[in-house]
Amino acid sequence: MKKHLIRPVGLVLTVLALLILGLISGRAASAQGNPADTPTPETVQVTIIDGDNTYTLASESRLPADYLDQAGLSLQPEDRLLLHGQPVDPERELKDAGFYHFQIRRAVKIELAIDSEEIVFYSSAPTLGHALHEMDIPLFAADRLDPPASTPLDGPIEAALQRSRVITIRYADGEKTVRTSASTVGDALAEAGFSLQGMDYTEPSAQSLLPEDGQIRLVRVQEKIVIEQEPLPYETELQPAPEVELDKREVLQEGELGIIARRIRVRYEDGKEVIQSVEAEWVAKEPRKRVVGYGTKIVIRTLDTPDGPIEYWRAVPMYATSYSPCRIFKDRCDDYTALGHTLKKGVVAMTNFWCRYTCGDRVYVPGYGVGIVADTGGGIPGRYWIDLGYSEEDYVSWHQWVTVYFLTPVPSNFMWILP
Known about the structure:
5 domains, rod-shaped, Ubiquitin-like (UB roll), 44% strand, single chain, five-stranded mixed sheet, mainly beta, disordered N terminus, 26 strands
């Protein structure tokens, strides 16, 4: 058993001895120094693209400006150095060694016309829009830039910028203020989302240049066609009716209203009616005339009176007045009528029109007696009138309605229809 245990112990001791000798040897070598283990600067691999030229170099510097010098390149004030596509300051040292890809974006000349003003500047921005932003030249959505802002700056460029203007569009429901670069009112409305339809109009007109004050009025116009109807009166026609008694009337045919129609064009501006015009008018239904029969049948009647029975063929309500020779004129008396008869009781007067048919006719007036129409007078407007004659000695004042009876025989010339 003892012999078996000694062998492993001897092996362990041997290994420990070798490790100690190795450590001693390493320390000794470190104390003497080894040139192969001395630290050295790390090399940077650089690629520089300048237009169509590519430069490849190695450098122990961490300063991009040194790489440019080594490649024989220089930057102008507006040129731009990009590192892996991002702008970098040539005077700022890089942190780590490795591979770096540089690109020089050379500034190009930009000639910009802003309305009537011309500006010249240089820029190495990637696009025209970026160049304007760097120059603090703002772009509004409504501005017009030619070529567009997304145009790459690959070389000298000429551009035109048309500034938009602030305009106010007033319409029925309110107003809207927008910017526009349009030159005419119509184009400005279109840019602002307003379309002219039908008979819509603007102030100033759509073809006009934008007004100096920027104020535009939009008027919406609508037209409607309306059909109107109204009654068309019928006419009344008189016809002799042999079966109807004199001075009476009978409707032979009822009248019926017609219809007249009109086509009217109604114009509305911003919802308010401004004008109507009649385009056509026609009779949609003809009226039917009313036919009235006037009596032509003469009936002889008798009447008992205080003066005895009378026979008459016509009786007419009339307003009666009276007169005498000295009551005709204010300054004198006149004993004769217009027809040359002596004015006394029994002589009566009617208007000139009535006298054409009744002069010479005999009449009976209750309370007066029988008289003959033998004089004319002015009458009373709107009334059937008779003036009863008296002498001065028997004068009686009359101002009342009476029934005047026209006595037989029936004259050959008389009024079939009383006026």
